[in-house]
């Protein structure tokens, strides 16, 4: 039973529909996770990825235990995260449909390696993260890998210099593939604001700059 | 040193710029994580959230150890994830700028509670996830909470019935706030494809429907 504060119960109760136990997080970033499996680069389409820390740079991914990619990640304790553009939607989707157990996905991409030497990265993806596993655990049929980003690579056409500092292009140029649990892919939309700078009115009203 | 296969080294080397150890995952979903702290609902703006499993429904979040919200999550082992629309950008941004230690954020939103009774959810957010912590660990200054989604709530104006089944509106209607490490907020763009259905040409060429 849903409990509501005071007399708002009926109002809220009629407003909300229960959908049960679904992990309805959105939007979902679409990436290609790369690993070296039996000596060959393999890539799987993945949405279950997130930043877990900035300093140190930590990310985590979740991948089905029986996935071919996991075999390489467990062996080398390294993997890559590659961000395709919407132009790469067909090949990205393909990497989510077929398994490296049956199909040699190494022919689909030009790959390069960084200092870890066992995390194949996709040259044509504008951004690649080279990752080293620091923690691994399982929940039912999933393996969750927490990893440190050892190096981030950006294609030079997406890099500009502003006041002598290298800057990465914004999302409208990186043109990522976005996913949601309605099983649709989406493009990114336009920028609408700046982090930590959109709350002037609230600061004025509620603090910390309240002057009453 | 970057190693490349065969003679592609110079070509790739000149194409990629190293940005060091940054967790450049994009796009980042912007949510409000809710917890009951000292008897009051508190909400923090968070981007470090992802799906970790579908069945069971598992998500994870990462939140700075000293954050006020963590206190409530650790006490009750419950929290909520609330998805604001772009119309809520100012108040969402505010929840990322000020701490519940100094500002009473319970006055900012109408909150309701589900069966866990200790995970306050924001009525005006189109989607709310009520979560129970199943695993917690720390990496340096971050606390990472892995949680099961006990119930997903969707505002009824975003729910339609198709063939007798309840369906949730797509992202263009849910209108999420999206973030990236360039510190900008973005809108979602238009749908461009359907998951697992965009790779016909690749299937034909590389299998599993190869007919050679």
Description:
The structure is a homodimer of 212-residue chains. Chain A is α+β, with helices and mostly antiparallel strands. Helix content of chain A is 17%, strand content 42%. Chain A has helices spanning 9-15, 68-76, 89-97, 171-174, 200-206, and strands at 16-18, 28-29, 31-37, 40-46, 49-53, 58-64, 78-83, 111-112, 121-122, 127-139, 142-155, 159-162, 165-168, 178-179, 184-194. In chain A, strands 4-3-7-10-11-6-5 form a 7-stranded antiparallel beta sheet. Chain A has a 3-stranded antiparallel beta sheet with strand order 2-14-15, with no helix packed on it. In chain A, strands 8-9 form a two-stranded antiparallel sheet. Chain A starts with 8 loop residues before the first helix and ends in a 6-residue tail after the last helix. Mean pLDDT of chain A is 93; it is low at 1-5. Strand 1 of chain A pairs antiparallel with strand 11 of chain B, so a sheet runs across the interface.
């Amino acid at each position: 039973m849903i409990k509501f504060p005071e007399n708002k119960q009926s109002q809220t109760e009629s407003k909300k529909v229960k959908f049960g136990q679904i992990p309805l997080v959105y939007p979902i970033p679409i990436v290609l996770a790369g690993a070296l499996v039996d000596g060959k680069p393999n890539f799987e389409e993945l949405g279950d990825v997130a930043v877990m820390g900035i300093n140190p740079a930590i990310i985590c991914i979740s991948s089905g235990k029986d996935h071919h990619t996991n075999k390489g990640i467990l062996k080398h304790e390294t993997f890559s995260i590659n961000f395709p553009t919407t132009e790469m939607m067909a090949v990205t989707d393909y990497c989510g449909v077929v398994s490296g157990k049956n199909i040699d996905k190494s022919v689909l991409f030009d790959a390069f390696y960084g200092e870890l030497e066992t995390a194949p990265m996709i040259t044509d993806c504008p951004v690649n993260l080279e990752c080293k596993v620091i923690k691994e655990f399982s929940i039912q049929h999933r393996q969750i890998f927490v990893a440190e980003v050892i190096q981030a690579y950006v294609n030079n056409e997406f890099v500009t210099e502003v006041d002598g500092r290298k800057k990465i292009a914004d999302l409208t140029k990186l043109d990522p593939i976005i996913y949601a649990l309605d099983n649709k892919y989406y493009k990114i939309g336009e920028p609408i604001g700046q982090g930590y700078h959109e709350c002037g009115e609230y600061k004025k009203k509620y603090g910390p700059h309240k002057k009453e």
